[in-house]
Specification:
The protein has 100 residues and is mostly beta strands. Helix content is 8%, strand content 40%. The protein has a domain of 60 residues. The chain is globular, with a radius of gyration of 15 Å.
Amino acid sequence: MKTVITEMERKSLDAPDERRAFPKGQVQVVTVGGTTFGRATLQPGWKWSESVKPIVGTETCQTEHLQYHVSGRLHVVMDDGKEAEFGPGDVALVPPGHDA
């Protein structure tokens, strides 16, 4: 059953609900209408398996991401070996089971 939205809601990633910091990066997170959005800022050389894996304890990232890339390049490797690289203007859907 789809939730019916009856009121507008606005939040800013400049004043996030939550800020998650990790080596070579950070994510600002807001939830609007039951949907969570994040803005990641990653430094050159950032790698999920080096910066986030020690925090979450899984072998690869187990979260699905719907992403819009503003700047820089992000190289993603799936558990099955498939690879892709994303850059400015790209919209990407990345399923669970990846390193980036």
